[in-house]
Amino acid sequence: VNDKFAHFARRLGLEDANTLKLDSPFDFHNHALFYVPEGLPEPAHGSYTDTMLDHAEQIIRASRGRTFVLFTSYRALNIAQRRLKDSCEFPLLVQGSAPRNELLQRFRELGNAVLLGTSSFWEGVDVRGEALSCVIIDKLPFASPGDPVWQARIDALKERGGNPFIEEQLPHAVITLKQGVGRLIRDVNDRGVLVICDPRLVSKSYGRVFLNSLPDMKRTRDFSEVVAFFFRPVMLRGYELLIENARNGRQQLSGPLAAPEKPSGVRDMTPPSSVQGCIHSASRKLLAPVPCMVG
DSSP characters for the chain? Predict the structure, then answer.
């Protein structure tokens, strides 16, 4: 938590313990993009879930499905299911509609599905490859204050003169968030976009604790950067085919927008109309480094 072991050591009653942090074998900096959408209200606002889903639908279309949408409550999941069952243009899988293992198997086989899940999909789930290329998290996962076990912990900390939020609630939320984030990159060759919709991540002082606890990913608040990330491999491959065809004398290079014939067996990757407006600006950024999010 916050790049330190203090919370873990305190829970075990350890003092002045020698600790060692080993870096992940995954190249998060080059293989992942961390996006925090702008324009979302505070999570307590009545319009939050609908506004979050507006952003989620846009991102899902840009990623061509291949997305986990992880919720902190069944209420939000149910709202998403009712909304997306008719509007989502990709196969929609919902927690509770089938056993977890069956949903995961179908998700892997479909290759362009969208899965809606709550707590059981935040951890212990392993989907490698392009089938999972985006993870969207609706809110920072603070535990429900109505949980009697959780309330007992808070009361005990207060009796000892401690700070329940700093010592227990915040570390627990950070660890839970890290579990959800960990669904994205499961192999050294995986690539993907992490989306955390909660504006508290950048508007509250404790947001820095979450940010410091996450892997070293490039950060952005610009949706066109997300589009560029998803279409970079496709467009770069297109340019490679152009050069290859030109060298072999099969096609004349008539300009930067010339496109090679789609090879047989390659899935249609034409971007949907809803994200066409971002393609022009995104294409200019394909070979440019992604700027870091401020704050």
Answer: -TT-SHHHHHHHT--S-----PPPSS-HHHHEEEE--SS---TTSTTHHHHHHHHHHHHHHHHTS-EEEE-S-HHHHHHHHHHHHHH-SS-EEETTSS-HHHHHHHHHHHSS-EEEE-GGGSSS----STT--EEEE-S--PPPTT-HHHHHHHHHHHHTT--HIIIIIHHHHHHHHHHHHTTS--STT--EEEEE--THHHHSTTHHHHHHHS---EEE--HHHHHHHHHHHHHHHHHHHHHHHHHTTSS----TT--PPPPTTPPP-PPPGGGHHHHHHHHTTTTSPPPPPP-
Report the predicted TM-score, pTM, of the whole model to 2 decimal places: 0.76
CA distances from 109 to 91, 105, 106, 120, 161 (A): 11, 6, 5, 20, 53
Confidence class for position 180, pLDDT limits 50, 70, 90: very high
pLDDT, tens digit, 9 for 90 and up, residues 117-133:
998 999 889 899 999 99
The closest alpha carbon to 168, from 154, 152, 185, 156, belongs to 154
Task: Tell me what pLDDT residue 50 has.
Answer: 95
CB 230 within 8 A of CB 70: no
> Angle at which helices 276-283 and 223-247 pack, to 10 degrees?
70
Structure tokens at 185: 């990159």
- Of 90, 63, 92, 61, the residue nearest 77 (C-alpha): 92
CB atoms closer than 10 angstroms to residue 209 = 18
Instruction: Please write the tens of the pLDDT for every residue from 24-59.
Output: 667 888 899 999 999 999 999 999 999 999 999 999
Other beta carbons less than 10 A from residue 25's beta carbon: 7
pLDDT at 242 over 90: no
